[in-house]
Amino acid sequence: MTTMSAPAAEVKAPPPKDDGREKGSFQGWLVILLAVVFGGLLAAVELTLGPAIAANKRNETLSRIPELISVPAADSQKLDIQPLAIPVTRDGKTTTYRVYRADRDKHPAGWVIQATGQGYADRIEILLGLSPDVASITGLFVLEQKETPGLGNKIAAIPWRSQFNGKPTGQALEVIKGGATQASQIDAITGATISSRSVAAIVNRVTADLRDRLAAEAGKEAS
Amino acid sequence: MNGGPTASQRFFLGILPENPVYRQMLGMCSTLAVTNNIQAAVTMAAAVLFVLVCANLIISLIRHWLTPYLRIVIFTLTIATFVTVADRALAAFVYPMSKMLGPYIPLIIVNCIIICRCEVCAAKQGPITAVADAAGQSLGFGLALVSLAAVRELLGSGMWFGSRVLPEAWPDWVIMVLPPGAFLTFGLLMGLVNWFTARRAGKEGA
Amino acid sequence: MSYLVDIFLIALSAALINNFIFYYFVGICPFLGVSRRVEMAFGMGCAVTFVITIAAAIAWGMTRFVLMPGAPLAQWVAGWFVDPETAKAVDLSILSYIVYIFAIAASVQFVEMYLRKYFPLLYRSFGVFLPLITTNCAILFACLTIMSQVAGVDDPAARWDLGRSLTMAAFGGLGFTLAIVIMAGIREELDACDVPAPFRGAPIALVVGGILAMAFMGFTGVDSGIKTALTRPAAMGVQAVSPPPAPVVATPAAEPGKQGAAK
Fold this sequence. Notes:
The complex is a heterotrimer. By secondary structure, chain A is of the alpha+beta class.
């Protein structure tokens, strides 16, 4: 209930400015009255809408998970999703990855990792789905990007990002202009090579950082 | 306390003759920022409608006790409260849209339209007139936003409300949905509005 | 990546790449209203830069210690009334907007009084713009950016500190000044041109703004290029990173990173 009392305290500061007119003394009370009324209003809004907003934020990521680990949407109820925070130290800098571990019938169904990196215009935030044994990529989703509309923002479109499905994680992916032939190659988007490379770089960093950690986790469960 | 325009006059004045965007040049930030698609523009206009109606109503109800010193403080407090409410409501009910509009919803607090209407109308006239004025101004604002968004979304991505309108062969003018497109479209549309007004005034004069 | 590189990139991004006016469209009202003469535009720009930096410091402090979920000061105060476990859940972020707008109003008042008393010369050059600034979107926008970078970040290591916040605000203000001064320079020349009647005033200014925005778009990607160049071995990731000898224990795995950097 601390939210109730706080708004009033926050905005009480102005009233002492009394201009000495007839209205003046009433004005101070008016501000306090308004502050209390508005404080109550805001507290009510927070109490009623707060849970819904928190749920929206969670679902934004969670609703993508079945698709990313190739589980049909119909079976998504059976998934048991557990969020983990895994810190990885690289070059003296610690990055904390948010990893979702999905289990179905007590068996690992896959991993989904949330990661960010520098794109062409701004940060790119992706969700990367990995198979239970962490050997291959099962899906890629772009949560947030501000790349150039019409060019770079195609990284978020299915035709391009579905290229990542089934790629091995043991080897860094390479972005090729025009015609990827090998298993570890990704076609660059015409006119947006930097955006394409940025996404591939994030994916490579995630797999390099987390491959062994997650494989160890999965192995621990099995034994 | 009376003597200003009546409620219905206020309502219709806001839509075209005193259009906040094209005529008074108020609230330009959101006008330019959220008009790369129509849905965002409509959501923005709805948020402004809510905030403006609530703020105008409250200010009009307490107008007799306002003094010059604290008037602006009270305006700001009222507006900031209702903007917070609108922001939370959007996040709870239309989360993707709230994410897309991002900081431009809280920026309604410093949108000059609202503080200007509180000052010009709500602080002087009764609640009914104030609400009519708020509705008229918001509709005018919405109309301006949608007109701008319609041009930008159509030329920039060949779509309206997210579905394809122009034939596939249309080469999307990407620049229209980028920041420069906002300035160019708005400048040209405003020039067009001025030209029509001048022509009509010329005819009436002749 | 070192702290200085980070600061440099934030400054570059705030001033040029994601310019307040040409990229985020904040501060358009003064951009159109006070851009007729270069001296006026410069005065306005200075006033905005001044206030934005002060407001950013307040906003950062308030967000970090009072407003964000689990903020220490709010927790401490709440600890007086409820048990410590409940106090941990205190989240005052719903008050953010109200606090920011009053922080801005207060800092405008403060700057005005301070300048009038101690720097009358400076006050005469841009003091007149100060009252207008309270409703300048750019300042609230800077506060909101700081809020999202402080309260909206999961990873405590990625949270902006005071230095980053102030850099963003100050250089954002500089970028604003740059934009408005360029605009004023062009508009002074425009006075001598024969602009079609319906386009005189705001419309032609907006069209000029559009062309300037196109020019500023040329900066897009400069920061990612610099960042990649400075941190090439680790971030490029294009070259093959050979699978490292599998560490079995789940301790913080530094191995893969070091290998990548050694290449």
